[in-house]
Design goal:
By secondary structure, the chain is of the alpha+beta class. It is built from 2 helices and 6 strands. Strands 1-5-6-4-3-2 form a 6-stranded mixed β-sheet.
Length: about 130
């Protein structure tokens, strides 16, 4: 077999492998993209709201919920059914809820604004997933 023919066969074989691999790569990318879209939560974007005048409610009689009432008027960017107050997410760990409550108390006592991050609804109200002292 001549060197030229051997090179040609080797290039032809390499090209076939490259085509097969590119098909597999495209298939894998397509599957990953589809799985990514399916696994996204229905509400994937968080909303940031700054509050400078709020009431803080810590309910202990019916359910362990922490409510934040915006005294400047309600905002409902999450399109929840009952936007009169914000609920701190009960899906957060108890430690995270305690830290958020401490941050809220510190802001209230020092009259500092807070920024809350909303993500969806809980009990019909906008759900707070994070609290930031401004």
């Amino acid at each position: 077999m001549s060197l030229k023919k051997a090179l040609f066969e080797s290039l032809k074989s390499w090209r076939v492998e490259e085509l097969v691999m590119s098909k597999y790569v495209r298939l894998f990318k397509s599957i990953a993209l589809i799985v990514g879209f399916i696994s996204l939560p229905a509400h994937a974007v968080n909303t940031f709201i700054t509050l400078d005048n709020f009431e803080l409610w810590s309910s202990t009689y019916e359910a362990d919920t922490i409510r934040i009432n915006d005294l400047n008027g309600e905002q409902n960017p999450e399109n929840c059914t009952d936007p009169d107050t914000y609920f701190l997410s009960t899906a957060l760990s108890l430690e995270a809820q305690n830290r958020a409550y401490s941050t809220l108390m510190a802001a209230k006592l020092s009259k500092q604004p807070i920024q809350i991050i909303l993500s969806g609804c809980q009990g019909g109200r906008p759900k707070v997933v994070s609290v930031i002292l401004k």
